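hey so i finaly got around to running the thing on Argininosuccinate lyase from Zavarzinia aquatilis. pasting the sequence first so u can double check i didnt mess up the copy paste, my clipboard has been acting weird all day
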Amino acid sequence: MRAIPALKGGLFVLLAISASAGPALAEDLTFTLNNATGAAVTEFYLSPANVDDWEENLLGNDALPAGTATDVTVADGRTTCLYDIKTVFKDGDEVDDRGIDLCQLGAYTIHE
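ok and heres what it spat out for the 3d tokens, dont ask me to read them lol
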């Protein structure tokens, strides 16, 4: 399993590239990130909807290739389910999605 930890401003996120993930703590938020586009995602930002600034790029130096998925666990101790999401593609295009309830969805899919 390949993992990418990121720590910034009290937000700890673990992206598990393999499908096998251990059990999450009760306050952890876990969802599947699906890239259903024809382009690689090079940056992925997730911030609570009530925060004005973007947290750290969760992909770090890695990318999420077109047509792939990964599990994301947010272990920041927050009780929020509403997040703002910013996705940046290899060609520099950006897509923002605001106020997404990741607790209800269980998955977030990036579309063309």
